[in-house]
Specification:
The chain contains 10 helices and 3 strands. It is mainly α. It folds into 2 domains: 63 residues, Arc Repressor Mutant, subunit A, CATH 1.10.10; 147 residues, Four Helix Bundle (Hemerythrin (Met), subunit A) (Up-down Bundle). The longest helix has 30 residues.
């Protein structure tokens, strides 16, 4: 691809860089749901061959962002209530379990990092810079769960967070109230963990995830009713 590589990413493949670029286009809304992804045009835009582009599309299909339809090509995945319900249900089950193990082991350095993320998150929410909402949300959850010492479960949760990134940003963009509530719940999560109130933190995390799911389901249903 023509864009310069960021420091520390010299070994990233062309396919991985193409996946990053496409992921950004989808997450930002530049490529809307249902949009056809023409491989020739994208390969030309990125200055690469079709082989790494196909690899990138397969990667994004695994993340739930793209659907590859036999004999038709690739399209941006549409919002699905069933998918949202399943992904957030799994997060609601696994993340509180990890938090119960991780929270008592969080260090002063962890809490300093969480405070930094909260400050950045607040700034980006208030500035309506939606491109970083998913990234900061994932970083916050990652640090909160990082001391659980459950690498396989963490790997599953990391995938779930990546697959729900688009949904998380959509949920936050629905209203100022959604942003305010997410900000307050994240701050309270960190406060509860810092004060050793682990059970309360795990319960809040479950409610936090369920609230995001409910917001999204209502939005999709309302949009479908408006179109009918």
């Amino acid at each position: 691809m023509n864009s310069p590589k960021a420091p520390g990413f010299a070994v990233r493949t062309v396919a991985e860089q193409a996946a990053d670029a496409l992921r950004h286009k989808i997450m930002s809304g530049e490529l809307a749901e249902g949009s056809s992804l023409r491989q020739d045009a994208l390969a030309a835009e990125f200055g690469i061959s079709r082989i790494p582009l196909r690899e990138a599309l397969v990667q994004l299909e695994g993340e739930g962002l793209v659907r590859i339809i036999p004999h038709k090509g690739a399209v941006v995945s549409e919002l699905s209530i069933d998918e949202i319900s399943e992904l957030f249900m799994l997060r609601g089950l696994l993340e509180p379990l990890l938090l119960k193990k991780s929270a008592p082991r969080l260090t002063a350095a962890d809490f300093a990092e969480l405070d930094t993320i909260l400050a950045e998150y607040k700034q980006e929410l208030h500035a309506q810079h939606s491109t970083r909402w998913g990234e900061l949300n994932t970083r916050l959850h990652d640090v909160l769960l990082s001391r659980a010492d459950q690498p396989r479960t963490m790997a599953i949760v990391a995938t779930l967070l990546q697959q729900t990134d688009r949904y998380t940003r959509l949920q936050l963009s629905l209203s100022a109230e959604s942003c305010r509530q997410a900000e307050e719940e994240h701050e309270e999560l960190v406060r509860l963990c810092r004060s050793g109130e682990v059970k309360a933190a795990a319960a809040l995390l479950k409610r936090h995830i369920e609230h995001a799911c409910t917001d999204l389901e209502r939005f999709i249903l309302a949009r479908r009713r408006a179109k009918s």
